[in-house]
Amino acid sequence: MVVAKDYQYYLVVKRANCSPEVQTEPSNKRVKPLSRVTSLANLIPPVKTAPLKRIGQTLQRSISFRSESRTETLMPPRPWTRPAPPANTKRRDSKLWSETFDVRLGHQMLSSKEIKRQEAIFELSQGERDLIEDLKLAKKAYHDPMLKLSIMTEHELTQIFGTLDSLIPLHEDLLSRLREARKPDGSTETVGHILVDWLPCLDSYNSYCSNQVAAKALLDHKKQDHRVHDFLQRCLESPFSRKLDLWNFLDIPRSRLVKYPLLLREILKHTPNDHTDRQHLDEAINMIQSIVAEINTQTGESECRFYKERLLYLEDSQRDLLIDSSRILSCHGELKNNRGAKLHVFLFQDVLVITRAITHSEQLHYQLYRQPIPVRELQWEDLQDGEIRLGGSIRGAFSNNERTKNFFRVSFHSGGQLQSHSFQASDAFNKQQWLNCIRQAKGAAESRKAAMTGTSGQYCCCCSCSDS
């Protein structure tokens, strides 16, 4: 039985590798190392990822999130990360418009500006083709075999793949329209009207992107199952994957979404001022920016809810209305304290929450480690390398063994006493991201307070007054 099942498994993977659609898979998707989470966010749980994840920028981080980012994006920057792709990632073979069609239309040579415009339109079309191929590949080479071999249940696969199936006909429609607009000589006169008519369809991305945080969390959890891990590893090593893992394929739609504004601006850039396409292109750019911003907001709120639901409280006194009322997760990630303990810190809209990551009911949860700290009362200080000593002692200089780097401190007054926490980031860049996030959150909190009280809301962000 074991041999037969393994052989069946092998045949499924082999068929996926040899299928004609798979052989022609092209693409040069890049995955940036750092992703931001500010609204679409971090789309994913932080374990085994970069220490700081910013929320609210989820979508953007990918422009590509790809950030992997330290990336990406339309929304406020958020630091989060995604696993780096395997070395030697294979890329799709790609051709320029001028390599596919004759730059001479009739007996007249096109201007360099018009050639660039046709290249930009062609890139938009080819990107749709590549996206469709990748989405079909994700279903044919990953979803269907895992379902057939009972590697995952149908419910689990539905959670991980979300509404991916519904995106395929949507992009097939755009590709068909762009091809119909292409003249026999390969040139395209106008695309703006096509985009204005088609872009509202992207509202369907709301549900897909909002599901990504939960999808990534479940996928990471399922990878602990040796059958799932083995299947995904075999796929990764197969030619059809182009050295991209399953999550790379599942995240491609989001990456494409945040790339549309750049693609349309490139077309507009090379479109003459008196061209009939300019007005529609301007309208299309405004539309896609609004769509991406709205999806980013909803995704960020979804991510915020996801993590709030996974907080575990040791006692009722740790519960805080500021956590319950938060709709924005500014950033989160793993930090160490000055004793070397790993902590997972969440900076919500109005409160900083320090936790320990634990496994509870076979799922990753976050147990509160200290009392939540209201952002309005939070002060921070950038510590110089070597200023803090492991174990808690502060001195000006130490031996090389005692010297520490990338520390910062947060403090606040509670019950008339000053409490502080020293955190160590993974590197100087990550530390700066945390400090920027805290500074922005503090400024936003002060602005909200000022709006409510009618005061100026000035606050001090200098290190000298952030700790006593």
UniProtKB/TrEMBL annotation:
Q: Where is the composition biased (Pro residues)?
A: 76-86
Q: Does the keyword Phosphoprotein feature in the UniProt annotation? A: no
One Pfam match: RhoGEF
The UniProt keyword set, sorted, is: Cytoplasm, Guanine-nucleotide releasing factor
Question: Which residue ranges does the record assign to the DH domain?
Answer: 116-298
State if Cytoplasm is listed as a keyword.
yes
Gene Ontology BP annotations:
intracellular signal transduction; positive regulation of Rho protein signal transduction
Q: Name one GO molecular function term.
A: guanyl-nucleotide exchange factor activity
Please, which domain of life does this record's source organism belong to? Eukaryota
The record's region (Disordered) falls at 68-93
Report domain PH positions.
328-443
Q: Which PROSITE patterns does its entry note?
A: DH_1, DH_2, PH_DOMAIN
GO CC terms for this protein?
cytoplasm
Subcellular location(s) per record: Cytoplasm
Which InterPro entries did the record assign? DBL_dom_sf, DH_dom, Endocytic_GEF_Adapter, GDS_CDC24_CS, PH-like_dom_sf, PH_domain, PH_RhoGEF3_XPLN, SOS1_NGEF_PH
> What does this chain do?
Acts as a guanine nucleotide exchange factor (GEF) for RhoA and RhoB GTPases.
In its UniProt entry, what is this protein called?
A: Rho guanine nucleotide exchange factor 3
Q: Which gene encodes it?
A: LOC110493277
